[in-house]
Amino acid sequence: MIRPFPNPAALPGALPGALLGALLGALVFAACGGAASTSAGGSPSVAPPDQASPEQAAPAPVTVLAGVYTDEQAERGRLVFREACAECHTTRDFRGETFYLSWEGSTVGRFVTSLVDTMPDDDPGSLPMQHYLDVTAYVLQLNGMPTGAAELADRAETLAGIRIERVGEGEGG
Ligand code: HEC
Fold it and tell me: Residue 13: its pLDDT value, please?
């Protein structure tokens, strides 16, 4: 006995109902991943992997509010600060309005570049790049920027895409 189709109008009328029933049954079986599927499907074919080009589209622009450094990195940055900056600076130099006055609307990339180009004042560019990145993470932390899953990394394009924005009102003093 043949079960009625839910929507006969949608099916080509030329095919005998029995055949359609069989096809439909096979489809349902396949959809459920049925182990009893017949040889009708043939061998499973694997689609060729996409040849993704190494140059993907540029990452979407983000801001420092998206979580662009980690706690660990900021902690390392704190030590860098102590060793390489604290003789001339206090953290107040890089915090709150003082920081925003110079850097709001700019990018993390520009901040890092400016550090590399000018600091330490008595020997600019003398630190390893990683230290400049870490101390930048520390400055973000000083300003209450949220942490995220990944560290600030030495990728100029990524850094240039991170806008410096103010943490929400009522935060970050
Ligand atoms: C030998 C002293 C000295 C050391 C060490 C030093 N700085 Fe400076 N820094 C200065 C002086 C002086 C200025 C202000 C004049 C200028 O901009 O060149 C300054 C300015 C800055 C500014 C610009 C402030 C702004 O927002 O416009 C930043 C940022 C900065 N320093 C970060 C650092 C960091 C980070 C370190 C450690 C890696 C560091 N400095 C180490 C002396 C120093």
Answer: 47
Cβ of residue 146 lying under 6 Å from some atom of ligand 1: no
Can you give the pLDDT at residue 60? 59
pTM: 0.71
* Percentage of the chain lying above the pLDDT 70 cut: 62
Q: Which residue has the tokens 């540029």?
A: 58
Please state the rounded mean pLDDT for residues 66-95: 97
Q: In angstroms, rounded to a whole number, what is the distance separating the alpha carbons of residues 21 and 4? A: 9
Report which ligand 1 atom has the smallest distance to the Cα of 101: 26
Q: Which amino acid is at 25?
A: G
Q: What residues contact residue 132 under an 8 Å CB cut-off, 6+ apart? A: 112, 115, 116
Instruction: Give the position, in ligand 1's atom list, of the atom nearest the Cα of 114.
Output: 29
Does residue 87 line the site of ligand 1, with CB under 6 A? yes
Q: How many whole angstroms separate alpha carbon 23 and alpha carbon 28?
A: 9
